[in-house]
Structures are given as C-alpha cells and as structure tokens.
C-alpha cells in the first residue's frame, strides 16, 4: 500500500506538471461537482424510471408466469399420478379376480376330467370283466368237452385193452365209472 | 499523449450549459453516465424482448441479475424491502455497468468521482432517515440504543451508535470512490512503467515485460473489484434500509 502510494505520488509529480495546474486528484476539485451531480440525478432518474416501469415488471411477470406454470404442471402431474394409481388399483383388483376365476375353472376342469376318467375306467372294467367271464365260460366248456372226450377215449382204450387181455367183452358202463373216478380223482 | 495517471479522472466540457445559474455542462462524465444508462436499459429491454417462458441466453442473464438483487433485498430487508427493490436494482446495475465501462480502454470511470459516489451515499442516508421516521416516527431514535444495553454503558453506546450512523454515508461513498480511483491509477502506473522501462533501453528495457504481466493481473483484479464494489454498495444499502424498515435491533 505504501509502495503504491509513493508510486502514485511520484507519478502525479512527474506527469502532472505540464497541464494540471491544481495538482492532486481531479476528484477533489470542487468546480467539477456541480455538473456531475446534476447529470447523475438526471441520468439515474431516467434509469430508475426505465427499470421500475419497463424492465423489472417484464422480468417479474415472466418469472411469476413461469412459477405459476411450474406449479400448475406439478398439480396436473399429481392429479395424473393419482388417476394412474386408481387405474392400477382397479387393474390389480380385476387381475386377482381373474386369477381366482382361472383357478376355479382349472379345478372344475380337473374334477370333470377325473370324473370322466373314473367312469371310463369303470366302463372298461365291466367290459373287461364280461369278456373275462365269457372267456372263463368258454374255457370251462372246452375243458368239460375235452374231459368228456378224454373219458370216451380212455373208456374205449380201457375196453380195448381189457378185451384184448381177457379176451371177453366187459361191461362198458363199469369201465366208464372207473375212468370217471380216476380222472376226477387226479383232479384234472 | 503520455500524461499523468490522474489525467483519466479529468473532466472536460463537451458542451457548456447553465441551468438557472448552475453549471450543468455536459462533460465526458455526463456522456459516460448517459452511455451507461442507455446501454444498460437497451440491453435489458433487448434481453427481455420476447419474454419467453423458456428463456434464451440473454433473457437468462437478465433474470439472473433480477433474482440476484431480489434475493439480496429479500434476505436483508425481508418482505418490507419490496418497494425498494427497483431502487436497489437500478443502483446495482448503474454502479456495476459504470465500473465495468471504466475498464474499457480510454474509458472514463463515472464511479471514480467522489461527487458521484457521495451523491449516491447521501441520497441513501437521507432515504434511510426518511423511511425510518415515516415508519416508526420518533421511535426511530431507538436505533441508537440497542436493546439490552447495561444502563451504565448507555451514554457511551449512544455516542458510538450516533457516530457510526453518521459515518455511514462517508464510508459508503468513499469506499467505492477509493476502490475505483486506486485501481485505475495502479493500472495506468504499471502501463506507464512498461513504456518508460522499454524506452530506457539496455537491461531495463529487457525487464519491461514485468510491469506488463503485472498489469494483466491488475486488470483481472480490477474486473473483480468492479463487480464486488457494485455488490458491496447495493448490499450495504440493503443493510442500512433494513435498519429503517425493520427497527428491531
């Protein structure tokens, strides 16, 4: 600071000599006060008027409008988000309803299918049972006829054998009884 | 051409004028005031020519300045400061643009003159007093006695507060004047060093880049000072008006 002041003083001394008769800062010359004050008052009054009446209301209006617009937009967004929330609620409600409905449908379909399977199985059972019975009957008949045939063959054979051995005819009925007894005794 | 570093502060009459016996000559200072007012007014109106909902670059700057000053007024005076906002804004813009205009080469710094800064300071001082009495009547005198002062300190505190109050316009006006004057003298002195050292020849001429570098730095500093002093002036005006509007302390 002192350096600066001395430099300032030196500069003032060296340079100011030819023209500055008063010396020192021109700011301290009272004769320059008047015009400056008058023109400052005039220009600043005009400036104040322009700012207060033209510029500042314009900027203020724009800022206010923007604030309002932003507030409005925020309100609208809030409203829309509420609407979206209610739509989501109803959507979720219908979704759960549809889900329960679908499980119901699946369950009933499953039970229907089960019933049908059961009835088909029962039908098949009876059909197969009938067939088996029929087959058993046939087997029994075959068996009986085979046994009868066997009886007849065996009786004939025995008769022939006995006739050959004894050389005389034998009572056919007696032989048949014996054969019958033998066959049934063996549990054929 | 190479005159004193103080020549930049000289006023020269461009048009002799006298109104009701007063010297109202149009000087270079008056021309720069008119220029500052015209450029700032036209610039701001041009920036707000469309007043878009979504601002462009120039409109953003205008809005930025508006909100900067509006927040300053709101933070320091509160809701009661609303009527003073146009004045504070005009004051801030006038001083800011005048300070910056002084940085233009061959420019004249309106705010480097005591007559200008003291006119502002005294007007603000009178405004504070007027607002204070209009709002609080004689109760405004309680400004000189902060609440909670011990009784035995009262005479001393009142004297200190009165001195502090009446020194406000002096400090307010001198601060801006001194800052602008000192900075501009410094720039001219360094600029003079560049020329005189270069002209001296030999080794000294070789070192003439030193004041040049210094002057670049001082120029940057002065741009900062130009903005800061405008801010300080407007801020202190808000603080002083706050005393008058909200008499609380």
Describe the protein:
The complex is a heterodimer of chains A (188) and B (249). Chain A has one domain. In chain A, 87% of the residues lie in helices and 0% in strands. Chain A is built from three helices and no strands. Chain A starts with a helix and ends with a helix. By secondary structure, chain B is mostly helical. Chain B has seven helices and four strands. In chain B, strands 1-4 form a two-stranded antiparallel sheet.
Category by helix and strand content of chain A:
mainly alpha
Give me the secondary-structure category of chain B: mainly alpha
Q: Helix fraction of chain B?
A: 55-70%
Overall geometry of chain B:
globular
What is the H/E string of chain A? Answer: HHH
What is the rounded Rg of chain A?
A: 67 Å
How far apart are the first and last residues' alpha carbons of chain B, in Å?
55 Å
**What does the largest sheet of chain B look like?**
2 strands, antiparallel
Number of helical segments of chain B?
Answer: 7
Q: How much of the sequence of chain B is in beta strands?
A: under 5%
Oligomer: heterodimer
Number of domains of chain A: 1
End-to-end span of chain A in angstroms? Answer: 146 Å
Average the pLDDT over all residues of chain B and give the rounded result: 87
Mean pLDDT of chain A: 83
Chart the SSEs and their pairings.
The complex is a heterodimer of chains A (188) and B (249).
Chain A: H1 2-16, H2 33-166, H3 172-186
Chain B: E1 13-15, E2 18-19, E3 22-23, E4 26-27, H1 28-47, H2 57-77, H3 85-101, H4 114-136, H5 154-200, H6 202-206, H7 209-245
Antiparallel strand pairs in B: 1-4, 2-3
Helix pairs in contact in B: 1-3, 2-3, 2-7, 3-7, 4-5, 4-7, 5-7
